[in-house]
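step=predict obj=polynucleotide adenylyltransferase n=493
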Amino acid sequence: MSRSENDFQKSETPWFIPEARGGSYLPHMCGLHQEIEDFYTYILPTAKESDLRCGVIKRIHEAIVSRWPNVYVDVFGSFRTGLYLPLGDIDLVVIGRWKHNPPYWGIANLLVEQGIVYPHQLKVLMHAKVPVIKIVDSSTNVRVDISFNNLNGRRGVTLVKEIRKKYPCFPKLVMVLKQFLSQRGLNEVFTGGISSYAIVLMVASFLDVHPRNHELSSPNINLGVLLLEFLELYGRVFQYDNVAIRSSEKSSEYEYCTKDSIYAFSSKNMDSARGRLCIEDPFIRGLDVSKGSFQAPNMAEAFDWAYTILSTYFAETSLEEPCKTSVLGQIVKISEEVLDFRDWVVRHHELRSSSHSPCASPTTKPRTREIRYSPSSPERRSHPPKTATQDVTQYYNYAPPPKKMANEARQNVRYWSHPTEGHSQRKRKRGNETQEEVGYPHPSTDGYSKKWNNGMDKNFSSRKFPNRRRAPRSSFVERFKGYRYNPEKLRVY
């Protein structure tokens, strides 16, 4: 192997240092066990990285509390448990009471005004199953997800701490699997991947149903064997069509059951497609936490591929030959983004003991793939970036969503029966009389307006079509207030 190839291999497997192990790793499975331990030590967040994220949390907390002093901002997820990757996101929850819906755009605009996030690095997912604000910190490029009134996060943190006390090998397996899925783009639920919470439950169920469960509490258990068995279970053996993961009612241990037994608790799970992963929330019966992971088949294929690579390697390797090359590096790599980010943290971030400024503001930014162009300055707000989303472009001046009155929005509505005729009103004859049809938009419709004629025409009467409700014209304007109308998509939402 040439020097350049050796340096490239070390950059992808920075945890593999044979000199620290006396020149080489132990042979066969024992060498993989040592590699997993070294990988866990390397991938754990350093003190500077933890302090960097604490500074991001404090800036967001101070900004939100300054506008809404009665709310409570809490941290949950992998950052709270300490099991997060260097490029992992921070999960925040805002707990409070509002008269109507939580101020999604209010908080988003506030963070933009205070310079915490740039407009092109902001997404407000109001209509998702779990409404969330996705931002990227402007000074550190750390991703943050802000949700509202999500009280299950604390219980999940407590659950992870209990599992770590029960199984010392649990955090090491979780970090290897998270990096394995992250480098393949299978760790984001927004894109159909597997969430960190689902990975935790998968590893916990694997350890609980293991045949040698009584031996897993020992710190000397072979991590290489456990990793290979996990890949075999969820890559080849597990029946995703009919089998689900759940925790038993009598104890906190996990077990396998049929999917129908979980779907029977809630009708919300009936639209889940067969073949996907099904994991029941240990705190809410009938709630499938992996319902949105439509890339579960790709995850199973990746586990199957990794099991084939490792099993083939060990079948062709002698039991007495020491490991001189990285075995774990055949399935897990460290990207250049992670190396650049950690180098940037070491060079530019300085710890400060003062509680008022826990994070030093860096002079330059880490190189990441998300920043493809330099952000526009405040003086250039009238020229948004080309790749900005439609919502960010529309509200680039940080104005709240506009509200249109009924008479203004009525002109942009097309008829559901004949949308090609545009906005023009049509007239049709009823006997000797001429009846004018007027289309009224309604918040309950899915884009196109219905024709309300107060039962004057028997062809469109409510008796023949009972689903066509009548809209009182007097209260129409009051009912339309508070809705944002988009004439391009013809949708009232």
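step=describe
The chain has 15 helices and 13 strands.
step=end
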